[in-house]
Design brief:
CATH class: Alpha Beta
Distance between the termini: 35 Å
Number of strands: 5
CATH superfamily: Rhodanese-like domain
Radius of gyration: 13 Å
CATH topology: Oxidized Rhodanese, domain 1
């Protein structure tokens, strides 16, 4: 089935992040995966708001702080990044490859 392409969103690959402090100071790491995915492992310090809850809960985020958005492999986080930037006025960046790429880059995960 044909899936329309999302407009390009600002993105960064985990390999480009500082391994000693992967989330830039003053930024928020937003995990938009479902609860079971979160429970299986997530980045330390991440804020958990599933994508389906984001429109109702985005006010829980500081609109003045840059947001780095992560999901499982990068698709949902790209949609969340687009929505946060265009509809909610945030400065959001998609984490390319999601938590899979985060782990492959050797960045920490907690349960």
């Amino acid at each position: 089935m044909f899936q329309p392409m999302l407009p390009e969103v600002p993105s960064v690959h985990p390999s480009e992040l500082d391994p000693t402090s992967p989330v830039p100071e003053g930024s928020v790491l937003l995990d938009v995966r479902e609860q079971d995915e979160w429970d299986a492992g997530h980045a330390p310090g991440a804020v958990h708001i599933p994508l389906s809850d984001l429109p109702a809960r985005f006010a829980e985020l500081d609109a003045e702080s840059p947001v780095l958005v992560v999901c499982h492999s990068g698709g949902r986080s790209a949609r969340a990044t687009q929505w946060l930037n265009e509809a909610a006025g945030f400065e959001a960046t998609n984490l390319e490859g999601g938590i899979l790429a985060w782990q492959s880059a050797g960045l920490p995960v907690e349960r």
